């Protein structure tokens, strides 16, 4: 989409933009420079995870020859810096700031100095292992880091017209084009973690250098042709030391390397890798009119969203490999649901919409955004979840080694810190996901107040949108340009009724692929009023989801709701809710912000049996009873901001 100007005005998201600018970016910059007084936690119990410091900026200084020392951190530590730079670029576009731009310009100069003369760029291999470049692609993340820098460079060029970063990116991409390909003297394969494909396709879009498009095509289509490729590389590497512990026993499917991508129909392996691969597939389909790869992407989308996704938009069912497992295996208390995976799902959805206008992509984008993604950061912008559970019991999380990844409150930083800057760069670029333009129609994917001027078939269209979404469903558009075009209004999948008016008169409509298309010759000051009903809804799950059998989940608008112990006491697992429960909505301005809470009466399971010294007992001799208890639910994204306590999203169903 060629957006000329989109100014988001809704208070909900303005708060996040200001939080990123004023808190997140300065805080993360301090962490990357090792000047923040914080405790860095391991995302799970594993001795090999480095957690003493970030050292990310120091790594660049050493690689540039400005300092001496050794590389510290993960081999992909550079990507933390690149994602931070990309987020800063989007912020500079929205909030020009000379001091911030001085920091980012200096950072780009430092990155340029760390780049080798042939274009190669990676601090770990420059400092520690110059003879091992591209020799362990399943572990090395060299192309992964390259992709993130290229993305940051493109964003920075588009934000402030700085060509230095873009020149570094082109030099790096040219080196990769020389190194990888089908020629006899080239490496015939790809990175273990998809990302370079996205960077190359973004770089192609602004440079029109077809070498970048062709290399992205090569990386995608070469994947899976030889499932043994990574093992062959390890055998050929004279240095047998590993780059990342714990990856030696993963199957080819972990890297989406088990089949050529056109033959993959189920989401397998590491969830972030899958969504980044699918994002690139959707991008290539759009840039090269590749219908085969688009159909393959659709199959993977359907498998993820119809059989392997949590109701919050989280994906990844197991801590082992941060991966998918099988259809309907969606445990709530041991899942992974990595923040980056939901971010990747949004990338995937946004790029599918450029090929295939269907509200299903927008609905999932909205679900992941309003629940898992913003839930991945604390309300202070300085604490983060790597993993987003749907059920937490602090005592179990602290003592059960298999749940060490399930944090009860958000840590300040991680040894593997991919998620915090990823959240920043996604939210800071939110304007690029609001609309999709196709065939003279502007489709509204996300509802949030904004003033915009968009280019449709080379002509400017200006309008404003006013709404207090996600708290209510009243959405009003004012057209500021007299011109013929279509406006596509999404009807969310959670909305069961709505009203639509044009200039205060009811409007006849048809819904196609989840959108109402209003195509007319617009006049200045034309008014569109869309009112989406937003009652509290109670959901159940597919019968094959064992973890949710006999349970209910609460949603209002795009927001999932949950219980916390601080509001409802302990032993949340003993609470039962009727599917006919009636809720009271309460607008509250509290420590959780200006939110709507939900109140209702549940039933708490109690027993008159003295369980002292008994772990199990004959059920015929025990009389259980239910006692009414008033409960309060809060938006899922706000949980964990008031200290450590129990949390539960799915509630037992009460059948009276």
TrEMBL record:
Start and end of every Non-reducing end beta-L-arabinofuranosidase-like GH127 middle domain? 442-534
Q: Which InterPro entries match?
A: 6-hairpin_glycosidase_sf (IPR008928), Beta-AFase-like (IPR049174), Beta-AFase-like_GH127_C (IPR049049), Beta-AFase-like_GH127_cat (IPR012878), Beta-AFase-like_GH127_middle (IPR049046)
Give every Non-reducing end beta-L-arabinofuranosidase-like GH127 C-terminal domain span.
Answer: 536-652
- Give GO terms for biological process: carbohydrate metabolic process
Q: Which intervals hold domain Non-reducing end beta-L-arabinofuranosidase-like GH127 catalytic?
A: 5-431
In terms of superkingdom, the source organism counts as Bacteria
Which PANTHER family does the annotation name?
A: DUF1680 DOMAIN PROTEIN (AFU_ORTHOLOGUE AFUA_1G08910)
The protein's name is: Glycoside hydrolase family 127 protein
**Organism source for this protein?**
Pectinatus brassicae
């Amino acid at each position: 989409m060629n957006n000329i100007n989109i100014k988001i005005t809704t208070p909900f998201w303005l708060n996040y933009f200001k939080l990123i600018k004023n808190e997140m970016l300065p805080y993360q910059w301090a962490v990357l420079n090792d000047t923040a007084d914080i405790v860095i936690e391991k995302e799970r119990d594993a001795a090999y995870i480095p957690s003493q410091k970030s050292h990310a900026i120091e790594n660049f200084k050493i690689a540039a020859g400005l300092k001496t020392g050794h590389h510290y951190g993960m081999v992909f530590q550079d990507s933390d810096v690149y994602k931070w730079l990309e987020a800063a670029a989007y912020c500079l576009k929205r909030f020009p700031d000379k001091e911030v731009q001085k920091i980012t310009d200096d950072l780009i100069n430092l990155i340029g100095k760390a780049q080798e003369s042939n274009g190669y760029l990676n601090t770990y291999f420059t400092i520690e292992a110059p003879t091992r470049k591209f020799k362990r692609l399943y572990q090395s993340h060299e192309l992964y880091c390259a992709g993130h820098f290229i993305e940051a460079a493109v964003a920075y060029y588009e934000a402030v017209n700085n060509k230095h970063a873009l020149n570094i990116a082109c030099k790096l991409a040219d080196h990769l084009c020389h190194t990888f390909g089908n020629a006899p003297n080239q490496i015939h394969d790809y990175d273990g973690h998809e990302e370079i494909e996205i960077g190359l396709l973004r770089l192609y879009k602004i440079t029109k250098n077809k070498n970048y498009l062709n290399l992205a095509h090569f990386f995608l289509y070469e994947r899976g042709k030889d499932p043994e490729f990574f093992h062959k590389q390890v055998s050929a590497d004279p240095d047998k030391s590993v780059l990342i512990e714990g990856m030696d026993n993963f199957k080819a499917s972990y890297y989406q390397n088990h089949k050529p991508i056109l033959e993959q129909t189920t989401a397998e392996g590491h969830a972030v890798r899958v969504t980044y691969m699918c994002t690139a597939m959707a991008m290539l389909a759009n840039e090269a009119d590749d219908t085969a790869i688009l159909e393959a992407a659709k199959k993977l989308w359907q498998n993820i969203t119809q059989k392997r996704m949590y109701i919050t938009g989280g994906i990844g069912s197991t801590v082992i490999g941060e991966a998918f497992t099988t259809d309907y295996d969606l445990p709530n208390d041991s899942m992974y649901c990595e923040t980056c995976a939901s971010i990747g799902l949004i990338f995937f959805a946004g790029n599918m919409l450029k090929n295939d206008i269907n509200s299903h992509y927008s609905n999932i984008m909205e679900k992941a955004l309003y629940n898992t993604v913003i839930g991945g950061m604390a309300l202070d912008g300085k604490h983060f979840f790597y993993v987003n559970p749907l059920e937490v019991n602090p005592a179990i999380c602290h003592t059960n080694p298999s749940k060490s990844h399930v944090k009860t409150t958000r840590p300040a930083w991680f040894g593997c810190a991919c998620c915090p800057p990823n959240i920043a760069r996604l939210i800071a670029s939110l304007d690029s996901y609001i609309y999709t333009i196709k065939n003279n129609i502007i489709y509204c994917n996300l509802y949030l107040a904004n003033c915009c001027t968009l280019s449709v078939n080379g002509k400017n269209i200006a309008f404003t949108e006013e709404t207090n979404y996600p708290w209510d469903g009243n959405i009003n558009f004012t057209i500021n340009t007299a011109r013929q075009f279509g406006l596509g209004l999404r009807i969310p999948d959670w909305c069961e009724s709505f009203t639509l008016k044009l200039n205060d008169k009811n409007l006849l409509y048809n819904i196609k692929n989840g959108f109402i298309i209003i195509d007319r010759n617009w006049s200045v000051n034309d008014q569109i009023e869309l009112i989406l009903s937003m009652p509290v809804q109670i959901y159940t799950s597919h019968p094959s989801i064992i973890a949710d059998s006999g349970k209910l989940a609460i949603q209002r608008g795009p927001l999932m709701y949950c219980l916390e112990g601080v509001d409802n006491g302990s032993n949340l697992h003993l609470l039962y809710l009727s599917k006919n429960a009636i809720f009271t909505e309460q607008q509250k301005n509290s420590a959780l912000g200006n939110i709507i809470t939900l109140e209702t009466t549940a039933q708490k399971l109690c027993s008159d049996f003295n369980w002292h010294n008994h772990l199990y007992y004959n059920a015929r001799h025990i009389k259980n009873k239910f006692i009414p208890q008033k409960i309060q639910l809060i938006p899922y994204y706000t949980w964990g901001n008031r200290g450590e306590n129990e949390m539960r999203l799915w509630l037992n169903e009460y059948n009276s």
